[in-house]
């Protein structure tokens, strides 16, 4: 008992954490280490230190106390802080069960993206808190990354909310959009590497934004800045942020909170240990929930933040904060051959490579069309940003594009890129040579769409149909687009998730056939442009 008393004494006023661990052990249940960490929101190191001081009965990876501790004040009392919506949770058992199933079916998390799955009751409590704290009828919610599926929980709880999810993980976008469509939920999905920008259709779009980003100061600062960029209401908009740190590392928490302070945000509330996870035991499998409100000084601070951001924002993988110091985020690529000198260099090229050639950033390349129509372009893609390759190729009308990756690609992009370029790879270099203009109607419509990838898909598609059908009005062409692709809406080709992008040729073909079969004069003006993707 002396060891336990010493640990509790050293905890001082934070002694409720070790007492919560002992109280959980004292109830006679069998525990795993992961369950005990998550139940008590106490770091694994602290829990392990306590377990070394007590007598345990073990069965496989489970354990329990052989006898309860005695003589330590507070062990038998409830020690967890009050949960603002715990009293509402029993009334939503069906929703929790549904989310457990959806989370179980979700793609496995990727360590390189710092994925750790939240529990089902966590995402339901997030939805309950938003519903209790804000007026959600007619509101818009932006999920800045959504591996936890908070979007689906919120839409199921409150169908009156319109939701957009932006994420870099194509698997997550496909999972969310598939279940949203099956359940009839107003949830749209957009691809984005937030280091390169927020999708155009998500800018100034939302009333609320929620994010559970990489737990580095760089990741917190970037994801929060993008969430702020997504707010349309600069006075009443809010950002909800999940962030957790071990009770042993207050300096790290300070660095993160300092990054929030630099964005001039007001912390209206911080709910301790609100979020619980399967994993992240170093931080007690728990994270606080922040409710942040922008000020008039937030917007210039956000602009400065995103202009000076680093690509290294994660704790693991090629874009971890640690790896940036050793290798940097720029691709150290060989210069193009003298006979293939590009007119534009895109990305972070070494300064001594073709110093007189025009340069532009990857983010700028994706955010707006490049002035002029270059014949050759060379693009450098840092490690960890390979997912942007299809969009980087779509963002130009160049005849030849040379893309240098950090390592050889696992595969080349498929449709619709294969209708636009002849693609080949040699080591880490991908070469794309633009194909001749297509001769079929559907090919011409698709080419018009892909040639204008920065434009709104519904508009460029409509224009393409009008070009191949004399007498087709804008209203009629719009109806054909809506019937073939209700998900087109306000999205650009560059924002489309891979699944939607791959299905674009078939959808274009369907719209062209519909125009042929129906006839321009009888095209219906029906269609549901508001159907979620």
Automatic annotation (TrEMBL):
Recorded superkingdom: Bacteria
Regions crossing the membrane: none
Cited SUPFAM superfamilies: S-adenosyl-L-methionine-dependent methyltransferases
Biological processes per GO annotation: methylation
Cited Pfam families: BpsA_C
MF-aspect GO terms: methyltransferase activity
Domain N(4)-bis(aminopropyl)spermidine synthase C-terminal: 94-299
Keywords: Methyltransferase, Transferase
Coiled coil segments of this chain: none
InterPro entries on file: BpsA_C (IPR002723), rRNA_MeTrfase/Polyamine_Synth (IPR051720), SAM-dependent_MTases_sf (IPR029063)
Protein name per the record: Methyltransferase
Annotated organism of origin: Streptosporangium pseudovulgare
């Amino acid at each position: 008992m002396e060891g336990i008393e010493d640990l509790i004494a050293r905890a001082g006023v934070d002694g409720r954490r070790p007492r919560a661990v002992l109280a959980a052990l004292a109830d006679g249940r069998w525990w795993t280490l992961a369950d005990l960490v998550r139940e008590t929101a106490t770091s694994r190191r602290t829990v392990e230190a306590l377990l070394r001081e007590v007598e345990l009965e073990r069965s496989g990876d489970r354990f329990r106390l052989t006898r309860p501790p005695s003589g330590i004040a507070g062990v038998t009392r409830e020690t967890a802080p009050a949960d603002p919506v715990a009293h509402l949770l029993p009334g939503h058992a069906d929703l929790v069960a549904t989310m457990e199933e959806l989370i179980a079916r979700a793609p496995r998390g990727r360590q390189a993206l710092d994925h750790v799955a939240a529990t089902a009751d966590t995402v339901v409590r997030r939805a309950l808190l938003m519903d209790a704290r804000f007026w959600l009828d007619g509101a818009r919610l932006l999920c800045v990354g959504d591996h936890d599926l908070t979007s689906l929980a919120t839409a199921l709880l409150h169908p009156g909310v319109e939701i957009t999810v932006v994420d870099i993980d194509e698997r997550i976008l496909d999972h969310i959009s598939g279940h949203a469509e099956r359940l009839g939920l107003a949830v749209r999905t957009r691809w984005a590497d937030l280091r390169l920008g927020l999708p155009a259709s998500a800018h100034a779009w939302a009333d609320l934004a929620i994010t559970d980003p990489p737990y580095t100061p760089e990741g917190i600062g970037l994801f929060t800045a993008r969430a702020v960029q997504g707010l349309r209401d600069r006075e009443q908009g809010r950002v909800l942020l999940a962030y957790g740190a071990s009770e042993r590392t207050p300096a790290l928490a300070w660095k993160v909170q300092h990054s929030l302070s630099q964005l001039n945000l007001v912390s209206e509330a911080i709910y301790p240990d609100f979020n619980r996870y399967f994993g992240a035991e170093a931080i007690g499998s728990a994270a606080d929930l922040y409710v942040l409100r922008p000020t008039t000084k937030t917007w210039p601070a956000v602009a400065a933040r995103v202009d000076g951001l680093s690509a290294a924002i994660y704790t693991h993988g090629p874009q971890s904060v640690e790896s940036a110091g050793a290798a940097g985020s720029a691709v150290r690529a060989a210069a193009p051959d003298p006979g293939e000198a590009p007119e534009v260099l895109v990305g972070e090229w070494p300064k001594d490579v073709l110093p007189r050639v025009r340069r532009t950033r990857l983010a700028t390349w994706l955010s707006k069309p490049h002035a002029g129509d270059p014949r050759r372009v060379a693009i450098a893609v840092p490690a960890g940003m390979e997912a942007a390759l299809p969009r980087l190729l779509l963002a130009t009308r160049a005849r030849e594009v040379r893309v240098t990756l950090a390592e050889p690609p696992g595969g080349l992009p498929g449709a619709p890129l294969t209708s636009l370029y002849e693609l080949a790879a040699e080591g880490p270099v991908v070469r794309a040579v633009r194909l001749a203009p297509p001769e079929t109607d559907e090919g011409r419509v698709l080419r018009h769409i892909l040639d204008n990838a920065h434009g709104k898909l519904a508009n460029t598609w409509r224009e393409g149909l009008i070009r191949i059908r004399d007498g087709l009005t804008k209203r009629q062409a719009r109806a054909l687009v809506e019937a073939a692709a209700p998900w087109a809406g306000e999205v650009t080709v560059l924002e489309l998730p891979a699944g939607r992008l791959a299905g674009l040729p078939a959808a274009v073909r369907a719209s062209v056939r519909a125009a042929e079969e129906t006839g321009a004069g009888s095209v219906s003006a029906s269609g549901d442009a508001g159907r979620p993707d």
